[in-house]
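Weekly sync, protein design subgroup
Attendees: M.S., D.O., the rotation student, P.L. (late)

Item 1: inverse folding check
M.S. brought a backbone from last month's batch and wanted to see whether the design step gives back something sensible before we order anything. D.O. pointed out we never logged the input encoding, so this time it goes straight into the notes. Structure tokens as presented (163 positions):
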């Protein structure tokens, strides 16, 4: 049993890291047969319904703009995505899926549906929905955290000192 706030935060973080690994493994399992990676699927999926800027995709996914840019450049090179002019911003192009990219995403859908149904059966649909709601609430709370250094806290340890 977790006994204090710090232990709760640590336990939540460790579980989130484990879940991230599990979701990435599942995503690779689903994407590989159609010739895409989990990362490609993630970026393509972000623009499935509407073109977005690289920055908007990064914000939505909680990853760096640079990582999205590298992936988008690869996908554009492979003909799965394209850059479009953005009427709202001259320099920030919109990223959109091509018909080939959208077809790759659609090809994943049947297996995705099978695994989603299996997971819903294992958890129970209402428990599954409650888990998603709790994860959403946790994400919103993390977004609301004040990440400024705390008054009186120790100076940050340089990464080289941790190794």
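Designed sequence read out in the meeting:
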């Amino acid at each position: 049993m977790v006994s204090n706030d710090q232990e709760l935060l640590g336990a939540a973080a460790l579980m989130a890291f484990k879940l991230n690994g599990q979701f990435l493994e599942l995503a690779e399992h689903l994407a590989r047969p159609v010739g895409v990676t989990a990362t490609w699927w993630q970026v393509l999926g972000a623009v499935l319904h509407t073109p977005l800027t690289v920055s908007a995709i990064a914000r939505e996914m909680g990853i760096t703009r640079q990582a999205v840019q590298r992936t988008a450049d690869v996908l554009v090179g492979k003909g799965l995505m394209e850059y479009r002019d953005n009427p709202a911003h001259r320099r920030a192009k919109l990223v959109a899926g091509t018909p080939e990219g959208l077809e790759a995403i659609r090809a994943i859908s049947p297996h995705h549906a099978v695994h989603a149904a299996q997971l819903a059966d294992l958890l129970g649909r209402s428990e599954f929905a409650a888990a998603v709601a709790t994860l959403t609430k946790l994400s919103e709370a993390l977004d609301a955290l004040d990440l400024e250094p705390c008054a009186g806290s120790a100076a940050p340890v340089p990464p080289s000192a941790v190794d």
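Discussion: The beta strands are 52-53, 81-84, 94-97. DSSP finds seven helices and three strands in the chain.
Action: P.L. to compare against the previous round before Friday.
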